[in-house]
Amino acid sequence: MVHPVLEAVTNDVIERSKKTREIYLGRIDEAMQKGPHRAVLGCGNLAHGFAACSMSEKADLAGDKKANIAIISSYNDMLSAHEPFKDFPAIIKKAATEAGGVAQFAGGVPAMCDGITQGQPGMELSLFSRDVIAMATAIGLSHNMFDAAMYLGVCDKIVPGLLIGALSFGHLPAVFVPAGPMPSGLPNKEKVRIRQLYAEGKVGREELLKAESESYHSPGTCTFYGTANSNQMMVEMMGLHLPGSSFINPNTPLRDALTKRATEQALKFTALGDDYRPIGHMIDEKAILNALVGLLATGGSTNHTIHLIAIARAAGIIINWDDFDRLSKIIPLVTRIYPNGTADVNHFQAAGGMGVLIRELSKNGLMHTDIITIGDEKGMEQYTKEPTLKDGTLTWEEGPEGSLDTDVIGSVAAPFATSGGLHLIKGNLGRGMSKISAVDPKHQVVEAPAMVFDHQDDVVEAFKRGEMNKDVIVVLRFQGPKSNGMPELHKLTPPLGVLQDKGFKVALVTDGRMSGASGKVPSAIHLCPECADGSILTKVRDGDMIRLDTQRGELNVLVDEEELNSRMACVLANTEHHYGMGRELFDSFRQGVSSAETGAINMFNVE
């Protein structure tokens, strides 16, 4: 039995999405009816499409009986999370041939790292890179040569972009293939300690770089529970990863065996066979809400209060922040992964990982198990099992009944918090989101005077001058998608953490982002309307008292309404951030982007 609140939210989403979902399904069903797509290509088109193939592959592709898999990859060898993908195309092509199909590398998509661009001008391209990735995915698939697609991606904007692109080709089966996390390095708690010491000037750059390098040290995804690992969790909750495959380390026999099996599954689900599973039908309202439930239950990235909305809309499904808020009240926090605890994703995997999480949620009616997946068993049944190699053969065995480490994975009966880690924030400053899973309850309500800034560097400089050694709510304006692309603001985490450790009441209020690494300082982020659209935030002045109650979901500036209305709104005159580091190329994105609450969408309309 599904929990009545989850059932009610699901029904509301289905009803709300009725028109747009019908339009979307109509479009992909029309594409389905045309059959294997190479058959519609002219001889010249087809000859171009397989010119570089072997003679046997040309013979296979000339007909319409053997399936052709498109490989769309985010590989580059600078980013640790994507470096392992260098070997995947060869594995996929060999597996496809052995299984009676063909695979072609259809296209690459850009992959930028927020960890590298954090606090830098390039960070202002980050959010918009999601839409570029979606469009690049569509370009790779536009040759109309393919019967299914495999998507190789991991990090922040990459997986949402790949998903949006895949859903634009919703008539094709889709299999997502993770790279896996790097082995554990310097404990995250120690890394944060060094960062705060550096912010205070107590250690130098050499010590800081040593700590960072010991934390981020090898190929694979960063091990903290930020947007990248939240991506992997959500994709598995939607049934687009093989069961239990999200957090297997790269460059291991099990990782390679899972990539091979993923290829076999992609071939199995094409329209040429008798078990056709197009992604447009797989990703329905229930699958989207499974991802949302997983996000709440694990205290995942606040970025997905934007990305999941955009992904859903690409499938004709309309969700909103009220859905997050309603479900947050019934979904307990059942994991402790840094920054919500000291463990990393490797510890989570060792404690039972996704199998234990899915078993716990499903047995308590807190997720939908009757969705279409890329597994072999009905619904989500196989997703409580663990992949293993036995004498070189990949099999799935029943996973543990419960957590193997209750400090990392709890239970619905004994959660780490009774509600999900994300809360909707409302008040006279607008609507926003707050992640409180890593915030100590004693810091979850803050009332303090505002200090108003329009650039994150100004916050850091004020901290260094000692001007913030007091109770303070930092108001950082003009950080929304229309202003400057909505960069993440982790540059502020160490100084604000230092102030909190000194005993001051501290919070952040902004129309910008903080993402999955949001830590111990309470915040109200993604505020809508954003400042570029005339937010009341533009009328807040230094010294105004602000009250942020993340427990009740309330945010208000404590200024008389008549006084507030009489104030002139501040307008950001400095457009310096619109130029340099490629930012001038994204002017049309800034002008055309929707609000954070509607997914910060630029490039498509489901109606």
From TrEMBL:
[4Fe-4S] cluster binds at C155, C222. One of its GO terms (biological process) is D-gluconate metabolic process. Its cofactor is [4Fe-4S] cluster. Residues 66-377 form the Dihydroxy-acid/6-phosphogluconate dehydratase N-terminal domain. The keyword Metal-binding applies. Keywords: 4Fe-4S, Carbohydrate metabolism, Gluconate utilization, Iron, Iron-sulfur, Lyase, Metal-binding. Binds 1 [4Fe-4S] cluster. Pathway: Carbohydrate metabolism; Entner-Doudoroff pathway. It catalyses: 6-phospho-D-gluconate = 2-dehydro-3-deoxy-6-phospho-D-gluconate + H2O. Its EC number is 4.2.1.12. The keyword Metal-binding applies. GO terms for molecular function: 4 iron, 4 sulfur cluster binding; metal ion binding; phosphogluconate dehydratase activity. It comes from the Bacteria. Pfam families: ILV_EDD_C, ILVD_EDD_N. Residues 407-600 form the Dihydroxy-acid/6-phosphogluconate dehydratase C-terminal domain. GO terms for cellular component: cytosol. Catalyzes the dehydration of 6-phospho-D-gluconate to 2-dehydro-3-deoxy-6-phospho-D-gluconate. NCBIfam families: edd. Belongs to the IlvD/Edd family. This is Phosphogluconate dehydratase. It comes from Methylophaga aminisulfidivorans MP.
